[in-house]
Design a protein that fits this description.
This protein is of the alpha+beta class and 160 residues long. The protein is built from 4 helices and 12 strands, in the order αβββββαβαββββββα. The structure holds flavin-adenine dinucleotide.
């Protein structure tokens, strides 16, 4: 099986889009990620998966804290900025949640402390204990088949 087939198959799993944020020595770093999952309710744990080449890897290893910002449908540009898909440097302002930098307008901001780290292949899984959450009622940004999408309001109503 080649890499392309694997990527294509994994891209068939529709997800939301997050920006992971952390801070080290007063410098905020953000990275777009969709490898995010809820792990446990008691205790409240989540997992993120960070590639070995990502700058974010060393930063979370050092800070031992991160926030997951679940993006709204209006935040595709932020996703593109923090994925390096928009190259020019932008000035982004951050709010604070339990001391961690978070993105205003995210549909959920989840502040976490790293409680476990697993290196698996070319990615590192960080298990985060959730220490604070902030919610914002909005439609999510979605990612499917390598493209950004959004839920239409008709689809949301139909599922109720
Ligand atoms: P960089 O590439 O240096 O930073 C990313 C971008 O964010 C740069 O353009 C930088 O200028 C900008 N930036 C960072 N901090 C700030 C700041 N404070 N102010 C302004 N701009 C800032 N990779 C994974 O490892 N795991 C995943 O789950 C994952 N999911 C993805 C999902 C999607 C939908 C997409 C599009 C990409 C995903 N990626 C994932 C890839 C990942 O987002 C990119 O490889 C990213 O560029 C890696 O970031 P980096 O930490 O190496 O930092």
């Amino acid at each position: 099986m080649d890499d392309r087939k694997f990527r294509t198959a994994m891209g068939k799993f529709a997800t939301g889009v997050t920006v992971i944020t952390t801070e080290i020595a007063g410098e905020v770093h953000g990275m777009t990620a969709n490898a995010f999952m809820s792990v446990s309710l008691d205790p409240k744990l989540v997992v993120i998966s960070i590639g070995e080449k990502a700058q974010m890897l060393d930063k979370i290893k050092k800070s031992k804290k991160f926030a997951v910002n679940i993006l709204s449908a209006e935040q595709q540009e932020l996703s593109m900025i923090f994925a390096g898909q928009i190259k020019e440097q932008r000035e982004i302002s951050f709010e604070r949640l339990d001391g961690l930098p978070v993105l205003s307008g995210a549909i959920a901001q989840v502040a976490c402390e790293v409680v476990n780290v697993h290196i698996e292949g070319d990615h590192t899984l960080f298990i985060g204990k959730v220490i604070e959450i902030e919610l914002n009622e909005k439609e999510p940004l979605m990612f499917f088949n390598g493209r950004y999408r959004s839920l239409s309001s008709e689809e949301v109503l139909a599922s109720k």
